[in-house]
Amino acid sequence: MDERGGPWRWGEDDSGTPILHVDMDAFFASVEVAARPGLRGRAMVVGGRERGVVLAATYEARAFGIRSGMPMATAIARLPSVIVVPPDHESYRRVSRQVMAVLAEITPQLQQVSVDEAFLDVSGARRRLGSPARIGTLVRERVRREVGLPISVGIASTMFVAKVASTRAKPDGMLLVPEHATVDFLHALPVAALWGVGESTASRLADLGIRTVAELATAPRSSLAARLGPAAAHRLHDLAWGRDPRVVTPERTERSVSAEHTFPVDVTDRAELARTALAQTHTCARRLREAGMLARGVTLKVRLADFTTLTRSRRLDVPTDVAAALHGTVRALLAAVDVPATGVRLIGVRADDLVVAAGTPVQATLGDDGDDRRALEVAVDAVDRRFGGGAAVAASLLQAPPVPATQPTPSDPAVGAREPVPDRSRGDRTGRRADEPGPRSGLRRDSTTATPKPRIS
Amino acid sequence: MKFTVERDVLAEAVTWTARSLPSRPSIPVLAGVRIEASAEGLALSSFDYEVSAVSEITADVAEPGSLLVSGRLLAEISRALPARPVEVTVEGTRAVLTCGSSRFTLLTMPIEDYPSLPALPPASGTIDAHAFAEAVGQVTVAASRDETLPLLTGVRIEIEDDLLTLLATDRYRLAMREVSWNPATRGISATALVRARTLSEVAKSLTSAGSISLSLPTGQGSDIVGFEAGGRRTTSLLVDGDYPPVRRLFPEVTTSHAVVTTSSLIEAARRVALVAERNTPIRLEFSEGQVVLEAGQGEDAQASEAIEASFEGEAVTTAYNPGYLLDALGAVGKEFTRLSFTHGTKPSVITGQTALDSTTDEGFRYLIQPIRFAG
């Protein structure tokens, strides 16, 4: 029992609470700390130092008022000595998969809602694993032991209340809200704890004199509806009484995979944009293959120096997980973008409208049924895994002029033509390598901040 | 400038000349049709820097001169006029068009700003206009409509002495038509890549003449192709790029062969394809005496139909995009269709023949890549 009252402060009856919400604590930051114990106990944030935002902050950094979503400049202003670590989304995804794999062993009734968050409905696991509270404890132990990270668990009768409970359990805690205690638990909270209540709704509610969930629950629905609209009023009122009709829905398919890169300096050089987009195309294709998915559409995102964001999408003739096939469309989309003299701040490629690859009909191409190029890229995947270098991209493709699609690409490189780009060079290039202790090769393999710079040889 | 011309003659000529005018031209004069009146009659022309068209018609020219007016407007007006002679005069910056009791006044455009049209290259030879239109129609179905692959939106024209070959592919199927023609000089050899849409329009619109004259670029530095027939001539810029060596995609040997009645297969394929969702195939299972067509799977709607087929070789099961199959069957132009296979997952060759047991017509060949299922 700690000062927050521990997991049982609302009671120990978990008979009507089959819903678990599990949420990693300061996920990106925790992954970095686990990888480099030298960071433990330090005020550290994950994010781009130059122009980024705080993606995650350790609890030590939070003590200085640093929050995720805050501009990095603000965070540094609050604590100039804060350690800034560039994000490594590749390893966050990997760790996320490990966590989700643990959860999937608890129950298949698993709904992943983000990289570090999921709902479980353990109704069907009770006989095998015990009551929801026992399972919550088991989840925490297993994730701690097998992945090495802290995770908080909220247990309640509905998804919404479980989510609020996990928030109240943090860091590294668990909170059970027995079914009979649901209303008492909610009514003690400020309205901002409710799902969907942001600043503007909170201030409108404050206009009505409503600051707590209890006040919201007892407010006349008509006055809520007049202020918030009937739909929102209805929903908030339901939430205030713990009513949430949602059920845990296992969602197995990813909807898209993407890679983005914010340039350290705005870029006007089309060749550099094209190279970055090509590298991102390879990243997307590799992730499609890993996930066993095919993309039926491609989207190019370009953010200009003035923050105008352009997105250009196109459907593909044929669903694919091959970069060489995606790239023709990416290139055409990029060619249609006017690059202003002030340059481009961010570029990103997204493969979307995904379908499960197995059994999907694919119109093959004459003279090249796609297997050759796919085989090449799969071989390259293997090299990447072996040498740990997501940085490596087929060098000749990076420089190749447009190749007619019906022709095989004889210049396709042998696997050996790929070279791992030294991490340090990219770190230096982006200027984002900070004062983090100890080198770790995975750290710079992040598609969103450190797209590999191609070599021109 | 003053001339009188028959309404039908004018309407047809303007409609043809203005057919490819851009709706939003890069410079305003390109929306115009230029009319030159001389002792020989009228020459109407249009040009958008890619395609040029000139139509020569007879007219009673009282006063020679030239004039540039909106092609779209002139085409609409001339089609709507009563069937009477049309008189056109220029008064200052206006063209006045009188027909019966109708009178139109059109603003002219500055003719001095109008670009000069490319000269028609020397003729490479001639071909029957209907045969040409048929051949073009057979291959253009296979050309790509994907503007991101400009090379494949073209039809490759090859001439080799008295043989003219047309090729088009969108990577998923390949259509090739060989047809004999009359070369201007023995042993001539030339190639051109022409946008399929342009070629298709040109071929269809020049069938009123008996034969059509083709001008292919013969040497360095010439980058247009020309067509001329019955007082109409048109040029087009070539599509850039080296056409891939697609002929070698046709298999040298095929091991299984089916012959079916073209119309039965078209009808069966159309029916069965009704349940094939976008990007999903119809499956064809060929065996002794029949082909079974199927589409749909799992919990989706399903259809199947068997039709008679003469079949030799190992049984073959394959799957095609139904649209690609129907394009082929619509293009063979013969009562019977032959499908030749090496393997169900390899491209098949579709040809036509006049009788169940006649030799197949190799003049038109259509190669179709099956759909496979991702693993």
TrEMBL record, chain B:
Predominant location category: cytoplasm
Domain DNA polymerase III beta sliding clamp central, chain residue ranges per copy: 127-244
SMART domains named among the record's database cross-references: POL3Bc
GO MF terms held by the record: 3'-5' exonuclease activity; DNA binding; DNA-directed DNA polymerase activity; identical protein binding
Compartments reported by the entry: Cytoplasm
Ranges of residues in domain DNA polymerase III beta sliding clamp N-terminal: 1-118
InterPro entries named among the record's database cross-references: DNA_clamp_sf, DNA_polIII_beta, DNA_polIII_beta_C, DNA_polIII_beta_cen, DNA_polIII_beta_N
Domain DNA polymerase III beta sliding clamp C-terminal span(s) in chain numbering: 247-357
Coiled-coil stretches noted in the UniProt entry, renumbered to this chain: none
Example of a GO cellular component annotation carried by this entry: cytoplasm
SUPFAM superfamilies: DNA clamp (SSF55979)
GO biological process, one term: DNA strand elongation involved in DNA replication
Subunit structure, interactors included: Forms a ring-shaped head-to-tail homodimer around DNA.
Biological function: Confers DNA tethering and processivity to DNA polymerases and other proteins. Acts as a clamp, forming a ring around DNA (a reaction catalyzed by the clamp-loading complex) which diffuses in an ATP-independent manner freely and bidirectionally along dsDNA. Initially characterized for its ability to contact the catalytic subunit of DNA polymerase III (Pol III), a complex, multichain enzyme responsible for most of the replicative synthesis in bacteria; Pol III exhibits 3'-5' exonuclease proofreading activity.
Family: Belongs to the beta sliding clamp family.
Name by which UniProt lists this protein: Beta sliding clamp
Species, as recorded: Miniimonas arenae
